[in-house]
Amino acid sequence: IGVGINSPSTKLQVHGGLVKISGHAYARVTVNDGANEGFFGFENQGPLLIGNANADAQIRVQGTNDIFFQTENTVKRLTIKGDTGNVGIGTDAPTQLIDVLKTSNMAKIKVRTTTAGAFFEADSASSGYVGVILSSGGTQRWLMGGYASNNFTIKDGGTGGTERFTIVD
């Protein structure tokens, strides 16, 4: 079946602009080939497949292109870089595992719970290298944690800065 195309090359091929599903509708891909795999795919400069592989109850994104979640007016809200796996919130060019950018004042990340125990945890496999680095304008200003030591320190100037406060482990 061809929609917007006279000679479809697959069982269903839609050619042209936006395909829109309205209301409480969804697109379902069902595969009964014994592999228990079903993917919804997009092709542009390379395939991007989103789906469930091997009935392992995981959503899997397969491909090397970047993935963008954006509003209808093309504002990118979340990006997953295909080559690095870096995740960007508010940026389509994340440079770290998680990169959050807000273009106005008061960017906050909040961890909440309805009971006890909301934490941020930094766990390094290399002893003595763990902490929080506070930067301004791309320059490290403060380090709180341990850098080349199991002691808790506060350093002025980041990882290479001067120790201002130390609690010996």
Task: Describe the overall structure.
By secondary structure, the protein is mostly beta strands. The chain is built from no helices and 13 strands. It has a four-stranded mixed sheet with strand order 6-7-8-9, with no helix packed on it. Strands 10-11-12-13 form a four-stranded antiparallel sheet, with no helix packed on it. Strands 3-4-5 form a three-stranded antiparallel sheet, with no helix packed on it.
Order of helices and strands: EEEEEEEEEEEEE
Largest sheet: 4 strands, mixed
Structural class, from helix and strand content?
Answer: mainly beta
Q: Within the largest sheet, what's the order of strands?
A: 6-7-8-9
Distance between the termini: 71 Å
- Give the helix level as a range of percent: under 10%
What is the residue-mean pLDDT, rounded to a whole number? 80
* SS strand fraction: 35-45%
Helix count?
A: 0
Summarize the structure.
With 169 residues, the protein is mostly beta strands.
Q: What topology does this entry show?
A:
Blueprint: E1 2-3, E2 13-14, E3 38-43, E4 47-52, E5 59-62, E6 67-70, E7 76-80, E8 87-89, E9 98-100, E10 129-136, E11 139-147, E12 152-156, E13 162-167
Parallel strand pairs: 1-2, 8-9
Antiparallel strand pairs: 3-4, 4-5, 6-7, 7-8, 10-11, 11-12, 12-13
